[in-house]
Specification:
The complex is a heterodimer. Chain A is α+β, with helices and mostly antiparallel strands. Helices cover 25% and strands 19% of the residues of chain A. Among the domains of chain A are: 3-89, Ubiquitin-like (UB roll) (Roll), CATH 3.10.20; 283-507, Rossmann fold, CATH 3.40.50.740. In chain B, 25% of the residues lie in helices and 15% in strands. Chain B has 5 helices and 5 strands, in the order ααβαββαββα. Chain B has a 3-stranded antiparallel β-sheet. A two-stranded antiparallel ribbon of chain B has the order 1-4. The interface between A and B is medium-sized, with 10 and 15 residues.
Chain lengths: 515, 159
């Protein structure tokens, strides 16, 4: 293990470590543009200059390997002068249109300029102006703002493997661009917007949506598939403006897919169920009266969008009423990027968590058959899945039901036909825990205030259980979680999640609470 | 009565019968009061017959806002949100969108100022990099509802 000295402090590093990584590990702030820990270092922006004992000139720390006895100086007049000169070159042709640039406030060029330059310019010649154009259906490029760091080019080549982007032109006119007939539309394309250190690449959905300093950022977990990417949502005025990936090397590294960023419109969509209907206070009494007539008179239809807490309470309800629980899910295409980054085929976030509570996840077929044959006289639907479609046979057979209670997030023919409708909260409005396909227990958090009367299914189900005499009071979601999984609480789950066991099958053996 | 702080009390007691009597009859006080009254009668009056007569504001008076336009009649604002960021009363609300003109990227789709929240500090004018917003010398703001006090982009452009 080579030992190096950073600013006089001795540090032992793994062989092959680059100086910038060693400095990052020591908590030193090395300015950079082209270096990204998820990509191969390119060393082309020259911003991360440091003084090393092996060389008379300043070296680029993102490509300089640590060797035994190396002495690194990360500050001082020489290093500062070097960085200042690099920035001056970068700003020659940069339009400095920060007031109308969407990146302003989270722009590395803006931050570094504020830190390392005096706000003065020596250039009087006209700037080179480059095109502003669409690179793909979702991404627009402001060529003039590009500083040719090639992060986006390297991302498309190394991570996705599609290589749509390339640096075109030379010298002052160099800019990232696509082939005229090949748009930038791979399933992970929007990551280039996040890694762009300046405002050159912009997501059209977020364009002009909000200034970043007005927004609130909340850590949560994507519900788009069972991978459970760690994300951070940018919220302004109770509106989710965008979601971005959050670093978690056990799940998604630095990336997320485009599908996870889009399609969040349902939260405030026109189809959203916002009002309760029918008498929900007598629901528990009616359910238990029907359940008392014989075995399996009550059916429960849920989805694998349910959180661990909801699944746990559903199991309590099912056990009390002797009901069968069927889960609807959603499948899709699996996709793997060049570097092995995978989008899961199961498009619901918590199949593993439901399996953990129920042992096995049953499909909705038995419930449908029961309703059709008339064996099931009362059906309780608890669905948190957006865009769920119910089988037409179920809708036809539902007319025979004596009691149909629907807790749903969106209006559907089933909610129209229901006797009792309870508007529930979506993924973006509730607390809870999801277990991803690798068995990692991760926490979601409310991003916005719930729409209309929408209330959490955890509260609704606890209310039913109080009515059935199983529970004594309606507790918080965290209390229900700790009851369901006594080994954990929200603090232990933390922002990066925890693994209960190595595989989703093994997690079913985790001891569950008393009930 | 040891209440010497009272207005009209004298440290020096008047001497002589006449002086004492006049003092007791409040004659000096009444005379000084009359003097003040006469003074105000001949002074120029501060009151204006508003609204027939309106006060001329001094230069730099901070009244209602105006969104400025350039020579071609296009609004100067580029929706950079600097005024909204600088505003201490949080009364400005901008909605940005793509600009209809080729020489700029961004323009406001809506620009609202809540005149009831505004404290007329002029920070928006200071913050504006495009010289697009200014405080006019208009101080007459009459409206009959709260909604009217929220000025939209058209009202601000025509101010």
């Amino acid at each position: 293990m080579p030992k190096i000295k950073i600013d006089g402090k001795e540090v032992e590093v793994v062989p092959g470590t680059r100086v910038i990584d060693a400095c990052d590990h020591e908590g030193l702030d090395i300015p950079r543009f082209c270096y990204h820990p998820g990509l191969t270092p390119a060393g082309n922006c020259r911003m991360c200059l440091v003084k090393v004992s092996n060389s008379r000139k300043l070296e680029v720390s993102c490509v300089y390997p640590c060797s035994e006895g190396l002495e690194v100086t990360t500050s001082g007049p020489e290093v500062e002068a070097g960085r200042k000169a690099v920035l001056e070159y970068m700003l020659i042709n940069h339009p400095l249109d920060c007031p109308i640039c969407d990146k302003a406030g989270e722009c590395q060029l803006q931050d570094n300029t504020a830190e390392h330059r005096d706000g003065l310019t020596r250039f009087v010649d006209p700037k080179v102006v480059k095109d502003t154009k669409d690179l793909g259906p979702q991404i627009k490029i402001w060529g003039s703002r590009c500083i040719s760091c090639t992060r986006c080019v390297r991302f498309c080549e190394e991570v996705v493997g599609t290589g749509e982007l390339a640096m075109t032109q030379r010298g002052d006119h160099q800019v990232a661009d696509v082939h005229p007939e090949i748009p930038l539309d791979n399933p992970m394309s929007l990551n280039v917007v996040d890694i762009c250190p300046v405002g050159a690449l912009i997501d059209k959905d977020f364009l002009y949506a909000s200034r970043v300093w007005f927004t609130k950022r909340t850590d949560t977990v994507c519900a788009g598939c069972s991978k459970g990417c760690n994300i951070v949502a940018t919220v302004h005025q109770n509106d989710i403006k965008r979601v971005q990936p959050r670093e978690n090397h056990a799940v998604n590294h630095y990336w997320m897919c485009d599908a996870g960023r889009q399609g969040l419109d349902y939260v405030k969509g026109p189809n959203r169920l916002k009002l309760h209907r029918g008498d929900r206070k007598t629901l528990a009494a009616k359910l238990s009266a029907i359940a008392a007539r014989g075995p399996a008179r009550v059916g429960i239809l849920a989805s694998t969008y349910a959180t661990v807490e909801e699944a746990y309470l559903l199991k309590q309800v099912a056990d009390q009423l002797g009901a069968r629980v069927g889960f609807i899910g959603r499948g899709g295409d699996e996709w793997t990027a060049k570097n092995g980054w995978k989008i899961e085929a199961d498009k619901t976030p918590n199949r593993a968590g439901v399996a953990m509570v129920f042992g096995a996840v049953e499909g909705p077929e038995a419930i449908l058959a029961g309703v059709q044959s008339g064996a099931i006289q009362a059906l309780l639907v608890v669905n948190g899945m957006p865009g769920a479609t119910y089988a037409p046979e179920l809708l036809a057979a539902a007319k025979k039901l004596e009691l149909l209670a629907v807790c749903d997030i969106e209006k559907s023919p089933l909610s129209e036909a229901a006797h009792v409708v309870i508007a529930s909260t979506t993924w973006a409005e509730k607390d809870g825990v999801y277990v991803n396909s690798t068995g990692r227990v991760q926490r979601i958090q409310p991003l916005i205030v719930s729409q209309g009367q929408a209330r959490s299914d955890v509260a609704t189900l606890q209310e039913i259980l109080v009515g059935l005499g199983v529970r004594r009071a309606v507790l918080s979601t965290e209390a229900v979680f700790t009851e369901a999984v006594p080994a954990l609480d929200y603090a232990k789950v933390g922002s990066q999640g925890v693994v209960l066991a190595s595989s989703p099958e093994a997690t079913t053996t985790v001891s569950l609470g008393a009930k | 009565m040891a209440n010497d702080d009272r207005v009209g009390s004298r440290d020096v007691e008047p001497k002589g019968f006449l002086a004492k009597t006049l003092m007791k009859l409040y004659v000096p006080s009444v005379l000084s009061g009359m003097k003040k009254t006469m003074e105000y009668m001949i002074r120029p009056k501060a009151t204006l017959q508003y609204p027939e007569v309106k006060r001329v504001t001094r230069k730099g008076y901070r009244g209602e806002h105006r969104l400025k336009q350039d020579e071609q009649g296009r609004m100067k604002c580029v929706a950079c949100f600097m005024c909204q960021t600088a505003c201490p009363a949080e009364c400005i609300e901008i909605t940005a969108g793509p600009s209809p003109w080729p020489d700029r990227d961004k323009a406001p789709v809506q620009f609202r100022i809540d005149m009831m929240k505004c404290i007329y500090c002029g920070m928006c004018e200071e913050a504006c990099p495009c010289d697009a917003i200014e405080l006019t010398e208009t101080y007459t703001q009459v409206s009959t509802s709260r909604e009217e006090k929220i000025y939209d982009i058209n009202r601000l452009l025509s101010n």
